[in-house]
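User: Can you recover a sequence for this backbone? Please restate the input before giving your answer.

Assistant: Of course. Working from this structure:
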């Protein structure tokens, strides 16, 4: 048992979870998921992909719990007018992975839980895997000694000699940079670059492509998800924030909205909620986002959403494969925030003394 788990278990048995949850009952808990892992072992992306059993276990826990689950639009409306039920939860899922349709939608349907999907549209229209994520997977899962076999990886190591492929942190950095390099190539050259990297690393990508490990839903699949009850909202067209330039962000939202309205055959004005891709946001874009007719925008910052919070930057609870049920419960009750807040206050008072 880790120290954190042990500490949480003590707090729970002392009744602190119940007390804090009562104190925080007026806040909204916005859960954040991404996709499910469809690939082989070891699992990649702790918070990007979850094992299907873990997701099912979480949703079953939630359905049995005293936390009422509301659709996002209703939750935001009731956060605004003060009529939110105690300890309200809303479920949001980012990106629109194929695995979300395959594995999450059936669980949500079976348990009757409402959820919102923030769908990015570029890869749904274009088809094929999300290449920067696939590249990151290839690099971070590759043994260090084969990394130098890729011309792309060699070139990168040449320009960034500090990146050590022998350490996981170094591989993460190489994966991230190489993913960005591939992303910056013209669309027609990206898949060739990915094939070069995969073949240099000795990785067969056929099963990855066939199994659709890194695919988003196609247009037909997005329609199917919507028909099966998933609320679909905005997440930009290309999953980019363009250096937080307000006009570019607004344009991303408008293209995303137009594409979703076309794909789903519904009114463009029905898209009123937005999630910042990769959580990238700043005050500089709030007005531009609001002017796009957005009523709520969520980030990946951790916490519960209060009535007084800025609607253009609502915090969420990011659920991950490695999170224990106890930690999940600590986050939902608000105990986690309370501990994190206390730690922060302790650190800043230490800094005052040290300074
Ligand atoms: Zn995203």
């Amino acid at each position: 048992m880790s120290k954190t788990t042990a500490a949480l278990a003590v707090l729970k048995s002392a009744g602190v979870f119940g007390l804090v949850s009562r104190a925080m009952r007026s806040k909204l808990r916005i859960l954040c998921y991404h996709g499910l892992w469809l690939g082989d072992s070891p699992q990649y992306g702790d918070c990007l992909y979850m094992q299907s059993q873990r997701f099912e276990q979480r949703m079953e826990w939630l359905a049995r719990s005293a936390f009422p689950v509301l659709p996002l639009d209703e939750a935001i409306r009731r956060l605004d007018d003060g009529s939110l039920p105690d300890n309200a939860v809303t479920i949001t899922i980012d990106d629109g992975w194929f695995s979300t349709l395959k594995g999450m939608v059936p669980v949500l349907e079976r348990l009757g839980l409402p959820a919102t999907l923030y769908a990015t549209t570029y890869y749904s229209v274009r088809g094929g895997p999300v290449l920067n994520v696939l590249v990151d997977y290839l690099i971070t899962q590759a043994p260090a000694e084969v990394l130098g076999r890729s011309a792309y990886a060699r070139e990168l190591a040449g320009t960034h000699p500090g990146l050590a492929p022998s350490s996981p942190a170094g591989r993460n950095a190489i994966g991230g940079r190489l993913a960005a390099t591939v992303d910056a190539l013209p669309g027609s050259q990206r898949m060739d670059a990915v094939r070069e990297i995969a073949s240099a690393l000795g990785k067969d990508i056929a099963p990855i492509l066939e199994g659709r490990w890194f695919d988003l839903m196609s247009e037909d699949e997005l329609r199917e998800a919507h028909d099966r009850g998933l609320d679909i909202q905005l997440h930009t067209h290309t999953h980019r924030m363009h250096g937080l330039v307000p006009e570019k962000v607004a344009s991303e939202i408008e293209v995303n909205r137009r594409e979703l309205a076309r794909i789903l055959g519904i009114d463009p004005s029905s898209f009123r909620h937005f999630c910042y891709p990769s959580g990238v946001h700043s005050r500089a874009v709030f007005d531009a986002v609001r002017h796009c007719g957005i009523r709520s925008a969520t980030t990946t910052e951790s916490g519960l959403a209060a009535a007084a919070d800025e609607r253009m930057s609502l915090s969420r609870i990011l659920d991950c494969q490695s999170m224990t049920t106890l930690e999940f419960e600590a986050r939902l009750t608000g105990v986690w925030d309370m501990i994190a807040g206390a730690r922060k206050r302790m650190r800043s008072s230490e800094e005052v003394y040290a300074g």
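That completes the design. The chain has a mean pLDDT of 91.
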